[in-house]
Amino acid sequence: MRRIAALLVALLPLAATAQDAPWPELQLSREYVVDGIPGGNLSGLAWCGDALWTVSDREDDRVYRLHPGDGVMRAEAEVFQVEPPPDSGLPWGQRMRTWLTGKARGGQLDFEGLTCDSAGNRYLVSESRATVLHLPPGGSPRWLALPENLVRQARASGMLVTFNAMFEGIAVDPEGERLWLAAERERRGLLVLHKQQTAWSCTGGCVLYSEGGTEPAPAALGGKELSRDFSDLAFHAGKLFTLERQAHRLCRRKTADATVERCWSYAAEALTDARRYPVDYGSAEALWLDDEGAWIGVDNGNHRRGDGENRPIVWRFAAPAGGWSAP
């Protein structure tokens, strides 16, 4: 018994630091500036059909199809009309604060993530309302019927309690049968929903994973301790991939319990003098993966980076050696 206890104690530091290992660096294949999003603030990416799409958290009535050119992606707006969202169970005070913020800066719905299934259905997560909008390829948008206890379960696990730190990412499986939501920070976490005919339910509970604490930013940003966070989420080849903005990495996780299997850093490319912004936190907000690589979208927040560019940025990183499923 003592030997077992000693072994467990010895393994604890390894478990605690596994996520902070010096993960391999991804290689940047292409960089694009994005033209045609007046409000900036790119906050989601998804490949739907034959094109890459994006959304801005400052605009409540449109998504953008991206047309890549020579170093520039031209954004073409697709406008829609949406009914008021249902009550998700957020406290009144939190709803009022987000309403006032939306009035001041634009974007009452604060769309913070975009995903797509194999049928071309697009899903947008609203941070301010803690709910999801469904955009079918040939029909009218509608709000998903999410479980009434979704927000309550998340808050009971310590998530969705900090202003402007709500649902920040969304992913769906190709069949459109499972949906994951990422809570941003303080505490960060992942929730999973299963489709039951026209509604969604939590099978065995909504909360898949919840984590608090801080970790140091990369040395190039001063190494300041920042809250662990998720800024987007993707589903690829049977795994979840989390974009972890403050740490400048993306991680592959098990769908069963969100355990980290492997991570890759993009800090070396993102934090060159030319690409760095005058802030001490990360700016990557959007993630989409395919077999050949990763698309990462940068929300510059109206800041100019080192080379003077102040438009949103989309990076194309090559897949690592052995692919995203490599051990």
What is the element layout, followed by pairings?
Elements: H1 2-17, E1 28-35, E2 42-48, E3 51-56, E4 62-68, E5 72-79, H2 92-105, E6 111-116, E7 122-126, E8 131-135, E9 142-143, H3 150-156, E10 167-172, E11 178-183, E12 188-196, E13 199-201, E14 207-211, E15 214-216, E16 225-227, E17 232-236, E18 239-244, E19 249-253, E20 260-265, H4 267-270, E21 284-289, E22 293-298, E23 313-318
Parallel strand pairs: 1-5
Antiparallel strand pairs: 1-23, 2-3, 3-4, 4-5, 6-7, 7-8, 8-9, 10-11, 11-12, 12-13, 12-14, 15-16, 17-18, 18-19, 19-20, 21-22, 22-23
Keywords: Signal
Signal peptide: 1-18
Protein name: Esterase-like activity of phytase family protein
Query: What share of the residues does DSSP label as strand, in percent?
Result: 35-45%
Sequence of strands across the biggest β-sheet: 2-3-4-5-1-23-22-21
Instruction: Sketch the major β-sheet.
Output: 8 strands, mixed
Number of separate helices: 4
Low-confidence stretches: 1-20
How many angstroms does the end-to-end distance come to?
32 Å
Q: Which overall shape is indicated by the principal axes computed on the Cα atoms?
A: globular
Pfam families: Phytase-like
Protein name: Esterase-like activity of phytase family protein
InterPro entries: 6-blade_b-propeller_TolB-like (IPR011042), Phytase-like_dom (IPR027372)
Domain Phytase-like: 39-187
Structural features, described:
- This protein is mostly beta strands and 327 residues long.
- The protein has a single domain, classed as Neuraminidase (6 Propeller), CATH 2.120.10.
- Helix content is 13%, strand content 39%.
- The chain is built from four helices and 23 strands.
- The chain has an eight-stranded mixed beta sheet with strand order 2-3-4-5-1-23-22-21, with no helix packed on it. Strands 10, 11, 12, 13 and 14 form a five-stranded antiparallel beta sheet that branches.
- It is globular, with a radius of gyration of 19 Å.
- The N terminus is likely disordered.
- Keywords: Signal.
- This is Esterase-like activity of phytase family protein.
